[in-house]
Specification:
The chain is α/β, with parallel strands linked by helices. It has a single domain, classed as Alpha/Beta hydrolase fold, catalytic domain (Rossmann fold, 3-Layer(aba) Sandwich), CATH 3.40.50. It contains eleven helices and eleven strands. The protein has an eleven-stranded mixed β-sheet with strand order 2-1-11-10-8-7-5-6-4-3-9, sandwiched between helices. Helix 3 runs parallel beside helix 11 and helix 4 (158-167) runs parallel beside helix 8 (296-307). The longest helix is centred in the middle third of the chain and has 22 residues, at 230-251.
Length: 388
């Protein structure tokens, strides 16, 4: 039996900062007494604890600081310059993806952040996110990548597109992005994968396909946790969350891009002499760069068809054994796309996955909706927070 959820009106202005509450917690030693909590409230097996621990990951003052301070001084300009000079890396089949490394160039830790639907690091809003994330987390390098058909990133093969549409699994995408992540990650000691909305699905698929070690996986309101229809997606995403986005934007204290000199960055073809290739890629598939055509196919045909299926759980079960330390899934309690109780059940069923070594926690983001992630201070706070 599900617990009743009593969410107040969303805190669009973040007047109470940003608080999360842990609802479900699974450890590798799931049969130990300390992991037997009040799981029966959700009808979960007794190996899933539900400690109801709250954590304020950002105070109201910190939200205000992250709304203004990143744009003072030279920080914002440095990050924009880093975004102007992405790396272009050919993956399997010669399909290229562009990735921008921002933040601390001498960091030992790197966080890969995967965008939601249609995200593009050249967009002014994405620039604000990169500026804020790196300001909030100054000792870390961040990598932002453009997905298939966005910017200079190539399209997936038609067979992979078809599999995503048919099954709702994003593992075919991870098959092509994981070698790129492994290629960039060679320069760092600790690798973490983060993603929000559709990007959470991408991060999960990358973790499932990586050859290298993933320390942590952090997912902010992942899509595809339940079956729905294309109409249902449209109603919840464009209508329900569309209204929420307007309210968050009106209440936001973050400067508008034009007020801090941000504009859409010029898209240039990569320099042929600087095109990189993942390990093991044959010279026969490293031909001349060609700007991707029909990029809209991924955003408007492949993703909507895939996301109406409940593919998240299957992908997570493949990815989970490949994560060493932590898997944290954060779901706003007012999300129009998810019910946190569905995610709690998915976490509960992970207990049967062989080889699981990571601690897995499902958190509610209190008094917020899916589009809280479109406020850079909130997104930065989620990815910078210490949740252990």
């Amino acid at each position: 039996m599900y617990m009743e959820v009593h969410m107040r009106s969303p805190d669009y202005r973040f007047t109470e900062g940003l608080t999360i509450e842990r609802k479900t917690h699974l450890t590798p030693g799931w049969c130990e007494p300390e992991n037997i909590g009040n799981a029966e409230v959700l009808g979960l097996p007794r190996d899933i604890s539900q400690p109801d621990s709250r954590l304020q990951i950002a105070t109201p003052e910190e939200i205000q600081r992250l709304s203004k301070d990143p744009y003072s001084g030279e920080h914002a300009g440095r990050v924009v310059e880093q975004l102007k000079n992405p790396r272009y890396i050919r993956s399997l089949g010669g399909i290229g993806f562009e990735a921008a490394v921002v933040g601390n160039p001498d960091a030992e830790e790197v966080k890969f952040v995967f965008y939601g639907w249609g995200g593009n690091f050249r967009h002014p809003n994405a620039q604000r996110e990169a500026i804020t994330m790196t300001y909030a987390d100054p000792d870390v390098a961040y990598v932002v990548m453009n997905g298939p058909g966005v910017g200079n990133s190539g399209m997936l093969p038609e067979s992979s597109q078809k599999e995503i549409r048919k099954t709702g699994s994003y593992l075919p995408l991870g098959e092509y992005l994981a070698p790129v992540v492994d290629h960039v990650a060679q320069d760092y000691e600790l690798v973490k994968l983060d993603g929000h909305s559709l990007g959470a699905r991408t991060a999960t698929a990358v973790a499932a396909n990586r050859k290298g070690s993933t320390g942590e996986l952090r997912l902010y309101d992942p899509t595809g946790t339940r079956k729905t229809s294309l109409g249902g997606i449209a109603v919840r995403f464009f209508l329900g969350e569309g209204r929420e986005l307007i309210k968050y934007s009106k209440a936001s204290s973050v400067p508008k891009p034009e007020d801090v000199g941000l504009q859409f960055l010029t898209q240039r073809d990569p320099d042929p002499g600087n095109i990189e290739a993942v390990d093991g890629l044959s010279d026969s598939v490293t031909g001349e760069f060609k700007r991707p055509e029909s990029g809209w196919i991924q955003q408007f045909l492949v993703d909507p068809a895939g996301l109406r299926r409940d593919g998240f759980e299957g992908d997570l079960r493949v990815a989970a054994p490949n994560v060493e330390r932590r898997i944290d899934i954060l779901v706003p309690d007012g999300s129009h796309l998810n019910d946190w109780r569905d995610v709690a059940m998915i976490v509960g069923r992970l207990r049967s996955v062989p080889g699981l070594t990571a601690v897995v926690s499902q958190w509610n983001v209190l008094n917020h909706t899916h589009n809280s992630m479109n406020q850079p201070p909130a997104l930065a706070s989620v990815y910078a927070a210490e949740l252990s």
